[in-house]
């Protein structure tokens, strides 16, 4: 049984099984500069979006490049990988198709850039299922705040009470909860160290979309 009219999905680590890709990009980025990637780096920059993440990286690690140059390098490194290598989380396509068939409006709320995630979604046959796309470029604050989820709901024309947010990151789940959204946490290896906190904050935790498909089949 579906008790919401609008589903708002994060992409990396939630719909897209892209954690390993980003980890590899980050490792290569730091190795090129003769540095080891800090253990918490990926989790730190994940909610920021490219521009803010680049500014943080340049400032924190005292890099000689400008943030714009860092963004350009990340774009070069990630485009081919996202278009050809990134797949969906288990059960994601079937669940998205189920929601769409039952009249649920599907939205994206992501820190990623469209020129990367659009090819990945198209390559996996799900891009056409989404009704609205919202990125961090459209709001002032990152995913530790409810702004992007509120913007996504506004675009879709629904109140917060009519929406559910799917997220993998603790900071994203907290931001959505602070906005009053019902939240479903999607397990990802990148967030395994935060899993106990996620269990406390999120309304529900799933380890794959397959469990939601099984429940709908039972209904």
Within CATH, the superfamily of the largest domain carries the name HAD superfamily/HAD-like
Strand fraction equals 5-15%
CATH class of the largest domain: Alpha Beta
User: How many distinct helices?
Assistant: 10
CATH architecture assignment of the largest domain: 3-Layer(aba) Sandwich
What percent of residues adopt helix (DSSP H or I)? Answer: 40-55%
Report mean pLDDT, rounded to a whole number.
91
The overall number of domains is 2
CATH topology of the largest domain: Rossmann fold
Secondary-structure element series: EEHHHHEHEHEHEHEHEH
Count of individual beta strands: 8
Rg from alpha-carbon coordinates: 17 Å
End-to-end CA span: 6 Å
Uncertain runs are: none
Major β-sheet annotation: 6 strands, parallel
Could you state the oligomeric state of the chains shown?
single chain
Order of strands across the main sheet: 5-4-1-6-7-8
Note the overall shape.
globular
- Supply the helix-strand structural class: alpha/beta
Topology:
Blueprint: E1 6-9, E2 16-17, H1 19-31, H2 41-45, H3 50-60, H4 67-84, E3 87-88, H5 92-101, E4 105-110, H6 114-123, E5 132-135, H7 147-156, E6 163-167, H8 170-178, E7 182-186, H9 195-201, E8 204-206, H10 210-218
Parallel strand pairs: 1-4, 1-6, 4-5, 6-7, 7-8
Antiparallel strand pairs: 2-3
Helix pairs in contact: 1-4, 3-4, 4-6, 8-9
Give me a quick take on this structure.
The protein has helices at 19-31, 41-45, 50-60, 67-84, 92-101, 114-123, 147-156, 170-178, 195-201, 210-218; strands at 6-9, 16-17, 87-88, 105-110, 132-135, 163-167, 182-186, 204-206. It has 219 residues and is α/β, with parallel strands linked by helices. The protein has a six-stranded parallel sheet. The chain has a two-stranded antiparallel sheet with strand order 2-3.
């Amino acid at each position: 049984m579906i008790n919401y009219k609008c589903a708002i999905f994060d992409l990396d680590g939630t719909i897209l099984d892209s954690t390993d890709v980003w980890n590899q990009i980050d490792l290569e980025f730091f190795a090129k500069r003769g540095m080891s990637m800090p253990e918490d780096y990926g989790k730190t920059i994940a909610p920021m979006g490219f521009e803010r993440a680049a500014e943080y990286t340049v400032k924190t690690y005292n890099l000689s490049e400008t943030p714009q140059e860092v963004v350009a390098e990340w774009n070069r490194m990630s485009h081919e990988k996202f278009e050809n290598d990134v797949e969906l989380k288990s059960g994601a396509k079937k669940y998205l198709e189920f929601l769409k068939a039952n009249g649920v409006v599907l939205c994206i709320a992501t820190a990623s850039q469209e020129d990367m995630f659009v090819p990945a979604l198209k390559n996996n046959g799900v891009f056409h299922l989404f009704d609205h796309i919202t990125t961090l470029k459209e709001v002032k604050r990152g995913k530790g705040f409810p702004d992007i989820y509120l913007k996504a709901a506004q675009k879709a024309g629904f109140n917060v009470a009519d929406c559910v947010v799917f997220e993998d990151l603790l900071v994203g789940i907290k931001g959505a909860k602070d906005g009053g959204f019902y939240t479903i946490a999607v397990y990802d290896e990148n967030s395994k160290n935060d899993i106990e906190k996620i269990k406390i904050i999120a309304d529900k935790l799933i380890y794959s979309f397959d469990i939601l498909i099984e429940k709908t089949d039972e209904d």
